[in-house]
Write a structure and sequence with these properties.
This protein is 39% helix and 17% strand. It has 14 helices and twelve strands. The protein is globular and about 60 Å long.
């Protein structure tokens, strides 16, 4: 299928559900370069930090018709249900120092940050817009540092995600609008004492979201170390879910120059902002109005700082209806791996388009389980419990 191919209908449990495969007309993987390597040393200073496992999912491999499926399981990173603490903590560290006018030293650490805060005499507040996991991670960093936090969420955010953020000690403010509206509301709070730590970028706001992407490199480094140590095979297909594009940019920067034959980006059909931007060759906004269960990917505008890596790093994009994400949750559960809907989205895209992607027995597939079940009610419904 060529770029811009029409949506097609795919059988699903006796019903029909839409998915779309778009070959990326702008792919140029050799042009994608790695980001900063400073974050892993900082992460090692965080309480409870440890590498997360890479699981082999045999039932999932059988469903895809491939030889091996590797699942980087981020459902219990530092006691939280997602990988987001990696980007949030590094961006908070760099953002706080920048607000204080301090240049980072050669040995970044949580203790060093505490010392800078104690000596500054400033009453700082951390601020974040979120669909759930990023805001909770910023709230966790604030709690560790003894700082207040304000987290803005779009209307309709499920109660369990709001309660989890409040459980970290943050003030939650509900914005009457979409995720993009929460971003605008958070940006308006920026001042001398409020540090806005958002994971997407816009004109004039690029440093902190760039540090978020750099923070995710720790997760990718763990995978590469396991490959190079012979603990897991080199993947031939890598799938990354996209939202504003921060995680997927980090994946592209780590894997674009490695041997995988395919890098596949996956988005909800109702919020396919990167796919549509790639087709346009420039950033465009789509109407992501909160209808998808993949709440962490329900974003209408790509991050400017991440866009080039996504535009050139992925061989193709897959857009999926919610039914595929729910099926991926069930498939992973059969392997003893519990995922949230956004966390299963990378796999969902491969399930939806496995024939068009020519997946076969020689393939080693790498997917990222970016969140555990953060909506327990919907998780039980998906599993039929």
């Amino acid at each position: 299928m060529g770029a811009g191919a029409a949506s097609r209908r795919v059988p699903y449990h006796g019903a029909m559900a839409a998915s779309r495969l778009v070959r990326n007309p702008h792919v140029d993987r050799a042009s994608v370069t790695e980001g900063s390597a400073a974050a892993p040393a900082f992460h090692a200073s965080l309480p409870g930090f440890a590498p997360t496992p890479i699981r082999r999912a045999t039932t999932t491999a059988a469903r895809l018709g491939v030889g091996t499926v590797l699942v980087k399981d981020e459902s219990r990173r530092m006691g939280m249900p997602s990988f987001k603490i990696l980007g949030a903590s590094w961006a908070c560290y760099r953002g706080i120092l920048a607000k204080l006018g301090v240049t980072p030293g050669p040995a970044p650490s949580l203790d060093a940050l505490r010392d800078f805060l104690a000596s500054s005499g400033r009453d700082l507040v951390l601020v974040a817009a979120t669909d759930g996991n990023h805001g909770r991670a910023v709230a966790r960093v604030a709690r560790i540092l003894g700082l207040p936090a304000i987290v803005l969420v779009p209307a309709g955010t499920v109660a369990s995600r709001v309660e989890a953020i409040e459980g970290e000690g943050a003030e939650v403010r509900v914005v009457d609008g979409t995720y993009d509206d929460t971003i605008a509301a958070s940006a308006a709070l920026d001042d001398a004492n409020h540090v806005v730590v958002d994971d997407t970028s816009w004109e004039g706001y690029t440093d902190i979201p760039g540090w978020v992407i750099d923070g995710y490199s720790t997760m990718l480094d763990e995978v590469v170390r396991a490959i190079e140590a012979g603990e897991v095979p080199e993947p031939t297909v890598v799938a990354g879910q996209m939202g504003v594009g921060a995680l997927s940019a980090a994946i592209a920067r780590k894997f674009a120059r490695r041997p995988a034959r395919l890098l596949v980006g996956v988005e909800p059909t109702d919020a396919a902002c990167i796919t549509e931007s790639a087709l346009a060759g420039r950033i465009v906004t789509v109407a992501a109005e909160g209808h998808t269960c993949m709440a962490g990917l329900n974003c209408g505008t790509p991050s400017e700082i991440a866009f080039e890596s996504n535009l050139h790093g992925y061989d193709c994009f897959v857009t999926i209806a919610d039914e595929f994400a729910e099926e991926a949750v069930r498939v992973l559960h059969a392997d003893g791996i519990d995922a949230g809907e956004s966390g299963a989205a990378g796999l969902a895209g491969l399930l939806a388009e496995r024939e068009a992607l020519s997946l076969g027995e020689s393939d080693v597939v790498l997917v990222f389980l970016t969140e555990g079940p953060t909506d327990p009610v919907n998780f039980r419904r998906i599993l039929g419990e």
